[in-house]
């Protein structure tokens, strides 16, 4: 995938700072810097926000070397399958976000369990 390379390339071509993009995706410049360096993988919802802000399709942002125009996935079927999986995951995240917003107390409960959940995920990686 070309995600990290493309984000940096497009940021530089468009003469944007890391802070410009961080503000647009509602993250700190430090967090965005970690994404751009490849130290932390941005979650799918953030990738979608970056894609929209940079005015590039999600598919191109992830699977095409925008600097050279080369595609990283040679088989169209693979590219389409991965795109469908990403879209399905984004739909799932949007539904979860909606349910959290509509359930009284859910956001407070999420805030309570988030640190422990993050710790467990970090241990698995």
From TrEMBL:
- Read off the SUPFAM superfamilies from this record: lambda repressor-like DNA-binding domains (SSF47413)
Keyword Ribosomal protein in annotation: no
Cross-referenced CDD domains? HTH_XRE
Q: Which domain of life is it from?
A: Bacteria
Q: What are the HTH cro/C1-type domain coordinates in residue numbering? A: 7-61
The residues forming a coiled coil are: 79-113
Instruction: List the InterPro entries.
Output: Cro/C1-type_HTH, Lambda_DNA-bd_dom_sf
Tell me one GO molecular function of this protein: DNA binding
Record keywords, A-Z: Coiled coil, DNA-binding
DNA-binding among the record's keywords?
yes
The protein, known as: Helix-turn-helix domain protein
